[in-house]
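User: I'm putting together notes for a lab meeting next week and I want to include a structural view of one of the chains we've been expressing. I don't have a solved structure, so I'd like a prediction I can at least talk through. The sequence is below, exactly as it appears in our construct file.
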Amino acid sequence: MNESKFNPEDMSILDLDTSDTSLYEASCFLDSPETISAYLAENMKAQDSKMLMKALAEVVAAQGVNEVAQEAGVDRESLYKSLKGGAKIRFETVRKLLMAVGVELTVQPITANYSAPNFTNPAAGVAKKTAAAKLR
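Assistant: Thanks for the context. Below is the predicted structure for the 136-residue chain, given as structure tokens.
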């Protein structure tokens, strides 16, 4: 049996007209590590930490706050405070929560219209970015 490798890019958000639709609870659909991973990956693309924390709160709600808190080794009340809007949360807490819901944070190169920093010659990276910006 061939087991396919899950790719969050395969589940990108579609450009749909949602003006005649009603709101839905995202947590109803967050029932597997693959779905959770895709949901969080899409939210990370927005590069908005508040949006990501709201998405993580949805995931925690879907899995059950008590269960996630226990699995992550954090206090339930502290978890509520950490996930509410505007609260500062430590990276270690985010890592524990992600592990508790069955996903992990990974790092990969950025490929679209971006040149990685040149740590041996930082000025070279700035020059490449400036040149790329002028071409747009």
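A couple of points you could mention at the meeting. The chain has a mean pLDDT of 79. The helical segments are 33-45, 49-63, 65-72, 76-83, 91-100, 122-135.

User: Perfect, that's what I needed.
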